[in-house]
Amino acid sequence: MTQTGGGACAAVFDLDGTLIDSAPDIADAVNRTFVAHGLDATDEAVVTGLIGNGARQLVADLLTRQCIPAAPSDIAILTEAYVASYAERPVARTTIYPHVAEDLAELKRAGWRLGLCTNKPQALTLAVLEGLGMAPFFDAVRGADAVPARKPDPGHLRAVIEALGVDRAIYVGDTEVDEATALAVGMPFRGVAWAAPGRLSVAESTRLARLSDLLNP
Ligand SMILES: O=C(O)COP(=O)(O)O
Ligand SMILES: [Mg+2]
């Protein structure tokens, strides 16, 4: 199913919620930023449910929840401050989901080309991957600001596939943004079994219990 022109198999992964539980560091950073600007902190569980549409949208959604009207320039200032705050401690409380590292290693050993397509900014993405020792797994990495338009724009995922040098790949993610992106590109999608409730529309029976299950479709 994921056979490419050259005979290699390829998979592209979402990052937050799919490979890593980054919600604690994201919540800490955005809450530090909000409090520093005289705004309220938000429960980590609430922040977790808003991750997946990029840094700017997270800030905008949190402002909306607090009923604070904000001009685009205010959102931009807060977003920049949040990203800077996150960059100070990118992996303080972030963990790799169980079996993910060993399963990515198994896919690599089997000759698969692996890509990353995330709405996290590129510099932060690279810092997080380095901090967790995950950078060597990936042949191509594209964060939200490394492409003209982020997910669900199909160009984001296409850019990763092109960088991998393959004709097609399977996309693995944890939210409807990922599903919509794969659909727009016309490539197969698999949700992860550990996705938060309500964030995927694909049937639970089709979700990956282990990333290494990609080897046995
Ligand atoms: O929304 C984000 O910042 C990143 O989320 P993603 O890795 O799930 O695309
Ligand atoms: Mg995600």
From TrEMBL:
Keywords: Hydrolase. Its EC number is 3.1.3.18. It catalyses: 2-phosphoglycolate + H2O = glycolate + phosphate. Pfam families: HAD_2. InterPro entries: HAD-like_hydrolase_sf (IPR050155), HAD-like_sf (IPR036412), HAD-SF_hydro_IA (IPR006439), HAD_2 (IPR041492), HAD_sf (IPR023214), PGP-like_dom2 (IPR023198). Pathway: Organic acid metabolism; glycolate biosynthesis; glycolate from 2-phosphoglycolate: step 1/1. The keyword Hydrolase applies. It is an enzyme of class 3 (hydrolase). GO terms for molecular function: phosphoglycolate phosphatase activity. The keyword Glycoprotein does not apply. Belongs to the HAD-like hydrolase superfamily. CbbY/CbbZ/Gph/YieH family. This is phosphoglycolate phosphatase. The lineage of its organism: Bacteria, Pseudomonadati, Pseudomonadota, Alphaproteobacteria, Rhodobacterales.
